[in-house]
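>> received
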Amino acid sequence: MLNLPTTGISTNGNSFTVAVDPADVPDRYIGPHGLVSLEMEIYDPTSNGYAWTAQSVRLVGQRTARSASARHWANPITSTQTGTTRALTSLPPHIKVHLGKAAKGVKAALVSPRADTCRTTKIGQNDAWATIGEGYPAAPGYGTKRGTAWMTHSNGSEVTYGAAVTTNGTKWSASGSASVANTKGFDFQWDADTNPNISYRAEARYYKYKYDCGGVIINRKVKAVSETGGVKTVHVKANPPYWLSRTKCTFDMPAGTWTKTTGKAYSNAGGVKFDSVIGIDLSTSRAKVQQYYNRIQEEL
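>> returned
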């Protein structure tokens, strides 16, 4: 953990804006593709309200560039791994946080803490399966044979996994996220069968941390740090999305391989199957989803 200057924090009503100078972040805190994981605490002594959140950002341009305009932070979802933005502008990430009741003793610990008394300690880790994409080889009711579908999870591709926090050690709340790059590429593929929906899943490794100041536990949090390399596909009993129906699209396509690429980021509010660990599932999101199909003409 690296403490950053608080001079970059400004407020406007219920909004907090955090500006971090890339020069304040040493190279050892910058991950693959320029990813940096930021964490922020908010404490309101008047209401004894407390919140913690996390967000990954990407450093675009060289950190040592002389011109400030030559380097800036970008949202990993709206910027490529090489640093170029997918849109004309890449807006900073925007996170909604909720101030809950702070734990007993937090006010005294945070209002005037000694810098050397606050520490973050790793207290455990858990691996969890997370849905990072979905495929629909065929819509139901369109013939008896189904095509195949697949997705490539390339080496170095990134997934954003939800994070969570608890102030009392028992009740967890989703808050923020962390983007990680995988180190083992894999092609998901399966044969034709009667299941119209498939979920692509990767295994994410989460670390659990304890944050305390002067012996007072401020929070416990879980955050994704990597992928384990484990992958699998799971049959899902659910209807395909609306865009796959004939009322939405015209499936007058020949047999063979075709693709559908969504213009929006893929997201799944309950993508990380973490309920057995903290009582809630967490989110997953990717910058772009491309689905491949080998359609069978007689279905259409």
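>> Confidence is low (pLDDT under 50) at residues 85-89, 295-300.
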